[in-house]
């Protein structure tokens, strides 16, 4: 079974009679079925992923119950989405199928043959994909409709931000450190400085800061892309604070900074506590490919990493790839998202975007929408008017409430659904 296909097939296997030898119905959910074979397939895939990632799982009984609950929740959301009246265009399905074929290094015709060999024809597979996309869209719409942000909530958030500004800035910096031994001779210092200049040249050419840090930095945080984490300015070296004072979020110091430890190239990932009316806006574009579960997300990420390498080698253009494979509304415009202020995107997307220099392309980034490749086109400083500041605060508050609101929504759907558990046949 194709890894990218199996999760979609399993999600909507309900509604079909159990037909495999030894199979039986585990649960009836509204008009859908959960079968024993499907449950075992999901368990086997989770266990295989855990072995590959060296992840510890609950005991077998607890894991089985968790997976069964997840399958029931999926069926509940599928039946609800079908009744919502929302529709998915055939073009969206065609794009998703082409992406799945590409992820598995197949043509669409070869994918159809593989599906048939696995007992699923293309019309059924298209129907399953339609359900998956439909659930994602209905979930996003209905959860967002439930989130209520009042003017009092916004006032409180802005007051907290102003109080933080009064205490002082907080900075999240990343660094590439080229060490210089204590008492080093002049030729050694020159050699070390040349290595720092080499790193700076790669960044100016558009390479991702975290990639260069992992390859060249001699700092303990190199595996995290050199990121130091958010800290109050008074807990950072004075040299770092002064060197980055005029550097915008997402930008790097124009020259290596010398300290007793060596040469540092610093990047401002985030700055908080400064004037809420003055922000750094980013114009970015992205390629989004959706994934049904962690196993499919891993395969999508590998596909996007291949596309990223082709773009970086100049074999393909980012906007052309976005038009061809992206499953986002921005695809027709080459993935262009326009100018955005902080808080406009989900946190994981924004954090990855902020780590990029203009021209840089991120590694695959996961979010609740799927897996992204992000490219920053340009940045600018902007002064927001009071209405825009309030909308920015509203967006941040809305995002902070999404996960808890989603869980409430899913729980309510489950409580309203008809769920009948079945015992194994004797």
Automatic annotation (TrEMBL):
GO terms for biological process: Gram-negative-bacterium-type cell outer membrane assembly; protein folding; protein stabilization. InterPro entries: OMP_Chaperone_SurA, PPIase_dom_sf, PPIase_PpiC, PPIase_PpiC_CS, PPIase_SurA, SurA_N, Trigger_fact/SurA_dom_sf. It is found in: Periplasm. Its EC number is 5.2.1.8. Keywords: Chaperone, Coiled coil, Isomerase, Periplasm, Repeat, Rotamase, Signal. Residues 168-270, 279-378 form the PpiC domain. GO terms for molecular function: peptide binding; peptidyl-prolyl cis-trans isomerase activity; unfolded protein binding. Residues 297-324 form a coiled coil. The PPIase activity resides only in the second parvulin domain. The N-terminal region and the C-terminal tail are necessary and sufficient for the chaperone activity of SurA. The PPIase activity is dispensable for SurA to function as a chaperone. The N-terminal region and the C-terminal tail are also required for porin recognition. Chaperone involved in the correct folding and assembly of outer membrane proteins. Recognizes specific patterns of aromatic residues and the orientation of their side chains, which are found more frequently in integral outer membrane proteins. May act in both early periplasmic and late outer membrane-associated steps of protein maturation. This is Chaperone SurA. It comes from Pseudaquabacterium pictum.
């Amino acid at each position: 079974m194709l890894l990218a296909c199996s999760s979609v097939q399993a999600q909507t296997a309900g509604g079909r009679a159990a037909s495999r030898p030894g199979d039986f119905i585990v649960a009836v959910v509204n008009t859908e079925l959960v079968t024993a074979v499907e449950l075992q397939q999901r368990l086997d895939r989770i266990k295989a992923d855990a072995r590959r990632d060296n992840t510890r799982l609950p005991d077998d009984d607890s894991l089985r119950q968790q997976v069964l609950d997840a399958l029931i929740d999926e069926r509940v959301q599928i039946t609800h989405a079908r009744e919502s009246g929302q529709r998915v265009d055939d073009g969206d399905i065609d794009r998703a199928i082409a992406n799945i074929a590409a992820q598995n290094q197949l043509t669409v015709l070869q994918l159809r043959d593989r599906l048939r060999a696995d007992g699923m024809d293309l019309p059924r597979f298209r129907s399953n994909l339609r359900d998956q996309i439909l659930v994602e869209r209905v979930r996003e719409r209905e959860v967002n409709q439930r989130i209520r942000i009042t003017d009092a909530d916004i006032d409180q958030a802005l007051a907290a931000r102003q109080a933080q500004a009064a205490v002082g800035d907080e900075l999240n910096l990343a660094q590439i450190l080229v060490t210089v031994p204590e008492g080093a001779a002049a030729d050694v210092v020159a050699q070390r400085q040349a290595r720092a200049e080499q790193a700076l040249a790669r960044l100016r050419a558009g390479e991702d800061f975290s990639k260069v840090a992992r390859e060249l930095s001699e700092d303990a945080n190199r595996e995290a892309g050199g990121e130091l984490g958010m800290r109050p300015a008074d807990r950072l070296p004075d040299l770092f604070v002064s060197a980055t004072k005029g550097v915008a979020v997402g930008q790097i110091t124009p020259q290596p900074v010398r300290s007793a430890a060596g040469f540092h190239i610093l990047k401002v990932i985030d700055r908080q506590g400064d004037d809420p009316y003055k922000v750094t806006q980013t114009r970015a574009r992205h390629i989004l490919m959706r994934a049904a579960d962690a196993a499919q997300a891993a395969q999508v990420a590998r596909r996007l990493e291949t596309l990223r390498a082709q773009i970086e080698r100049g074999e393909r253009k980012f906007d052309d790839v976005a038009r061809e494979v992206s499953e986002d509304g921005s695809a027709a415009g080459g993935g262009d998202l326009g100018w955005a202020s902080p808080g406009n995107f989900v946190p994981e997307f924004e954090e990855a975007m902020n780590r990029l220099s203009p021209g840089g392309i991120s590694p695959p980034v996961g979010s609740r929408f799927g897996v992204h490749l992000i490219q920053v086109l340009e940045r600018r400083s902007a002064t927001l008017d009071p209405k825009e500041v309030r909308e920015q605060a509203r967006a941040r508050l809305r995002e902070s409430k999404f996960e808890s609101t989603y869980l409430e929504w899913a729980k309510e759907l489950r409580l309203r659904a008809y769920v009948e558990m079945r015992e194994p046949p004797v």
